[in-house]
Amino acid sequence: TQLLEQSPQFLSIQEGENLTVYCNSSSVFSSLQWYRQEPGEGPVLLVTVVTGGEVKKLKRLTFQFGDARKDSSLHITAAQPGDTGLYLCAGAASGGSNYKLTFGKGTLLTVNP
Amino acid sequence: NAGVTQTPKFQVLKTGQSMTLQCAQDMNHEYMSWYRQDPGMGLRLIHYSVGAGITDQGEVPNGYNVSRSTTEDFPLRLLSAAPSQTSVYFCASSRPSGGGFENIQYFGAGTRLSVL
Questions:
Q1: How close, in Å, is residue B74 to chain A by CA atoms?
Q2: Which of A24, A70, B103, B106 is deepest in the core (most CB within 10 A)?
Q3: CA-wise closest residue to B59 among A24, A90, A67
Q4: Residues of B in contact with A40 (CB under 8 A)
Q5: Segment A41-60, tens digit of pLDDT
Q6: Which pLDDT score is estimated for A3?
Q7: Is A47 helix (H, G, I), strand (E, B) or coil?
């Protein structure tokens, strides 16, 4: 079973601060996804990274896939209250089916105004 | 375009009762999955399907059955509910993208189940 360790589990910051969330594994993934989930809703896909070393930007969010495709990070610049939510990383096993995902336990982010 | 629709949104069961959680998607996706989400545990895969008539077990399949008679529907059956099955259940459908290297999962809004 492939495991994805997310850290930190909880993060409470003030509006305007920067933050980074980490997603680490000892296994290689063919792709890694980041989702955001708001209370009472299902997760919504933010981004997919496929290539080792890849960096993708989505407005104030920057996603990076490690060179060895075992880890990823999500960096948020100048966080806003609207960024509050549960952030989940999910990996598709290398050499396996890319529709079968392993999820991390999530990082619950609270951005205070 | 409704996407992934789950019913009911809330359900309370007594231990030993059975029930079916419904999931329907209107995006003609081949792949569908059921997850459960518990506090501090992330999402854990229960069962999944790669097409009509084809299902397989995920990480935590015990106590649950699935079937996939059509592309659109993927119901999850609890055979004899137990308090350990109290959770939030999410259904997802997905399609390949990016030349097959990416897989975009679309989630329903969830069913919140309590087993007393």
A1: 16
A2: B103
A3: A90
A4: 109-110
A5: 999 999 999 889 999 999 99
A6: 85
A7: strand
- How far apart, in whole angstroms, are the C-alpha atoms of residue B107 and residue B4? 6
Q: Is B102's CB within 8 Å of A98's CB?
A: yes
Do residues A108 and A11 make contact, with C-beta atoms less than 8 angstroms apart? yes
Neighbours of B108 (CB within 10 A): 25
Please check whether residue A88 touches B, CB under 8 A. yes
CA distance A79 to A14: 8
The helix (run of H) or strand (run of E) holding residue B113 is strand B111-115
CB-CB contact of A69 with A94 (8 Å) = yes
B113: which residues sit within 8 A by CB, 6+ positions away?
A: B10, B11, B12, B13, B21, B78, B85, B86, B87, B88, B89
Give the position of tokens 């079968």. Answer: A100
Instruction: Give A65 to chain B, closest Cα distance, Å.
Output: 14
Please state, in angstroms and rounded to a whole number, the distance separating the CA atoms of residues A67 and A54: 8
**Predicted local distance difference test score (pLDDT) of residue B106:** 92
Is residue A99 scored above 80 in pLDDT? no
The answer for A 50-79 residues in CB contact with B (under 8 A) is 50
How close A7 comes to chain B (CA, Å)? Answer: 12
Spatial separation of the C-alpha atoms in residues A17 and B6, rounded to whole Å: 37
